Amino acid sequence: MAEPEKANVVGVTIRPEIPADFGAIRELLVLAFSPEDVATLVENLRKTPGYVPDLALVAVHDGAVIGHVMFTQIEIESDSGNTPAMTLAPLAVHPTWQRQGVGSMLARHGLQLCHQIGHRIVTVIGHSTYYPKFGFVQSVPLGINMTHARLEESKMVLGLTPDALDGVTGMVRLPSIFDEA
Ligand SMILES: CC(C)(COP(=O)(O)OP(=O)(O)OC[C@H]1O[C@@H](n2cnc3c(N)ncnc32)[C@H](O)[C@@H]1OP(=O)(O)O)[C@@H](O)C(=O)NCCC(=O)NCCS
């Protein structure tokens, strides 16, 4: 990772989501992303083959869900073959808990789990000033582009092993349900 592990936020724990959390996660996503319908995106992502329940994580404080992150299996497609990867989307923290380290805790915990499970590459579309602290770099200069019209600088990728990105180029084709988010 780009920077040393930071202290966790006091009283906040990270664990995989369970169905009993789904209502609280919807409420959190509506609050964090309103008016974008990211809550429906997450519910649809759970129905795709790329959904990995162990990599959909909640941050919990005093029994309440205060943050959520999802890592979904995707492929980087190219003429010479496809490369498996994970994509980080979405990441959300309850407005009253933002800017206190919970988003970083969720991202770092999830990336460590991805690495432990054996995944080698994680992509993200997001704030270009937020994700570099976890080691993400701009993907387009490396030859990795992404569907969905967003700013070029928002397209980022992270190799979880030193050689993970060697020779990898192509197009990250996100599930079409991202079109509706
Ligand atoms: C973006 C988000 C996930 C970050 O989580 P967080 O717990 O607030 O962030 P952390 O405490 O780990 O990190 C704080 C740093 O993140 C950056 N940051 C936080 N919100 C940001 C935003 N909306 N845009 C850009 N950078 C942001 C800042 O650098 C901040 O540092 P500062 O407080 O010293 O300025 C959270 O603010 C959120 O849910 N926002 C609304 C939904 C969203 O935009 N999700 C991201 C989709 S890519």
Verbal overview:
By secondary structure, the chain is of the alpha+beta class. It has a single domain (12-180), classed as Gcn5-related N-acetyltransferase (GNAT) (Aminopeptidase). Helix content is 20%, strand content 33%. It has three helices and nine strands; from the N terminus they run βααβββαβββββ. The chain has helices at 22-33, 38-45, 102-117; strands at residues 12-16, 51-61, 64-77, 83-93, 121-125, 137-138, 144-146, 155-159, 170-172. Strands 1, 2, 3, 4, 5, 6, 7, 8 and 9 form a nine-stranded mixed sheet that branches. Helix 1 (22-33) packs antiparallel against helix 2. The longest helix is centred in the middle third of the chain and has 16 residues, at 102-117. It is globular, with a radius of gyration of 16 Å. The chain starts with 11 loop residues before the first strand and ends in a 9-residue tail after the last strand. The structure holds coenzyme A. Coenzyme A (COA) binds at residues 32-33, 90-93, 98-104, 126-127, 129-130. Coenzyme A is lined by residues 32-33, 90-93, 98-104, 126-127, 129-130.
